[in-house]
Design a protein that fits this description.
about 30% strand; single chain; globular; 60s Ribosomal Protein L30, Chain: A; alpha+beta
Amino acid sequence: MAVCRVGLGYDIHKLVPGRRLLLGGVAIESDVGLDGHSDADALLHSITDAILGACGEPDIGEIFPSSDDKWKGASSVIFVNEAVQRASQKNLAIQNVDSVIIAERPKLRPWKESIRRNIAEILGIGIDCVGIKAKSSEGMGPVGEGKAIEARTVVLLSSRV
């Protein structure tokens, strides 16, 4: 009997000048970027936490604490790869990932397909198993005021056959 596990991930980072904006490992043209200890890729952080949650592992902050200089400026792909490895060690494989990026600016429509393709490649799954949506906060809260970007992800893992 196949085992199915669902994980939910969430992340938010402030937008600041002088930083590169990365989402899903893709560089986005912008005059501001996400602030954080690593490369601050909120989407990859959300995906990492969703995978870790689905396989009952600690969250990204416990595994890659911002208090550890080892992770300063680190690529968030490292975090995703570790989560995928932990899932694999439990005989779990990613079936699909579905994410929502919430941002007022920049408008993400031109980058959605590149982000989707990159995430499929990072996770080693088909592009048809990756959903990426971009939404705004309609001017509400820090995201709506253009001060932050957040990401939410759900992932489905199942036992390997």
